[in-house]
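Appendix B. Chain record.
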Amino acid sequence: MNPHTLPRDIPDPVRRAVRQRCKFCCVLCICGVYEYHHFAPLFAEAHAHDPDGITLLCGTHHDKVTRGIIKPEEVRAADQRRRSEAPDALLHRLSLRRPTIHVLGSIVLLGEGPILSFDGTPLLCVVPGEDGIAEITARFLDGEGWETVYIERADSSSLRN
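Structure tokens predicted for this chain:
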């Protein structure tokens, strides 16, 4: 909790509104793995989880913001740019061409097929669809190996939802 007794847990409707407004990615680099960041006001000063004052940042950019390397004005400007982008503006950024290159931390993979597998079961596949737009198939397992979420051939058109 912050000094105003606001808990860190952001309610689902607020999280959904922020994700949709930010088009499901970091407002600074379009990374699809993100964290929620209170910027207006900062979390320590917030009395409520206002979706207009929260944005999405990848872990790297969130860390740089909290360390003061990236200034709050830069976050605010990036959030404003993302708000004004047309829904289709990101589609060209999510296009894949053959051969595909995937970067997972320090691992660089070239080619198509599963990016990540466990015991021979593909967990993550990213391939270009017929139109060149990225299609993602992902399988998430719990600690006992049971499938909990399965996403089949989702493409970037889902950014509009």
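Further analysis of this model is presented in Appendix C.
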